[in-house]
Specification:
CATH architecture of the largest domain: 2-Layer Sandwich
Structural class: alpha+beta
Shape: elongated
Distance between the termini: 57 Å
Number of domains: 2
Radius of gyration: 23 Å
Strand content: 15-25%
Order of helices and strands: EEEHHEEEEEEHHHHH
CATH class of the largest domain: Alpha Beta
């Protein structure tokens, strides 16, 4: 329950036992303003993530800020995962550098990950990816603060790490909660995006169906599409019927209306890696 006061926003639900926690209303506004800036920058993580680490460094008076997504993929070796770390860092002079590392990890307890089962014959199709869950949502406390947000739909964890220089004031309990508030609001955008993708008939659309749909949206007839793609009119007609089934429509007008509405600009910030969902059949020519 939120209770407004002249200079502070008091959050009772987030208050640790024994700690009187107050967040400045100004700081909360700055956090949500930054969420808005990230959305306005669009989808490209090479644009929104560098901007975010710069702004977080100033908001939290940190010396170094690190923002990265850690992806876990099953391997052919039982009990071992492939860990991919991608992100950006910023120092006290606003110098930026990108992060990209890959390693095989056996310390699965660090992330509470259980490796997927791989059959003895080593077939990759038998691997089962298990969602990632960090040990703690937020920890650190003095000169280092780390927030981890679980993204189980792509077997990943998003991380925000803040460092302060020796001799600088320690991170307060309020700053712990403020960073967590920001990270949770950012994570909600990705979860909402995942739910939208799960119900989107264009998600994982096979290349030929995607090409046919794009040509239909540009106003071309089936004959014109067949000539452009160098395929028979019969093949293109079958693709159009497959699109009707995919979008659950019965006419070209309905198809264009439904697909066109879903092609509107999306300002949700994207992650660097999105793993394909298993079990989706691919139509062949």
């Amino acid at each position: 329950m939120l209770q407004l006061r002249p200079q502070y926003l008091q959050i009772r639900a987030l208050r640790p036992r024994g700690i009187h926690l107050r967040l400045r209303l100004r700081d909360v506004r700055n956090v949500f303003r930054l969420i808005g800036e990230v959305r306005e920058l669009g989808q490209d993580p090479k644009i929104w993530r560098p901007h975010m680490v710069k702004r977080l460094r100033r908001l939290f008076a940190a010396e170094i800020v690190v923002s990265s997504e850690v992806h876990a993929q099953t391997t052919r070796t039982p009990g071992k995962l492939r860990v991919i770390d991608i992100g950006w860092s910023c120092d006290s002079e606003d110098h930026l550098w990108d992060i990209h590392s890959e390693r095989d990890d056996e310390n699965l307890e660090e992330w509470r990950i259980v490796a997927g089962h791989v059959p003895p014959n080593g077939e990759e199709s038998g691997a089962v990816a298990v969602p990632v869950k960090p040990i703690k949502p937020v920890y650190g406390g003095r000169s280092f603060l780390l927030s981890q947000y679980s993204l189980p739909h792509i077997n990943a964890v998003d991380q925000l790490g803040l460092h302060r220089a020796f001799g600088e004031p320690h991170f307060s309990a309020g700053e712990h909660r403020l960073l967590r508030m920001f990270h949770v609001e950012l994570g909600r955008l990705w979860k909402r995006d995942a739910l939208k993708d799960a119900s989107n008939p264009q998600q994982d659309l096979p290349p030929r169906l995607s090409q046919t749909l794009n040509e239909l949206l540009s106003g071309k007839s089936e004959k014109e599409i067949a000539n452009r793609l160098e395929l028979s009119r019969h093949t293109i007609h079958n693709y159009v019927k497959a699109l009707h089934q995919r979008f659950e429509v019965s006419s070209r007008g309905e198809l264009l209306a439904k697909a066109g509405a879903q092609n509107k600009p999306d300002f949700t910030p994207k992650l660097s890696i999105t793993l394909p969902r298993p079990g989706r059949a691919v139509e062949k020519e």
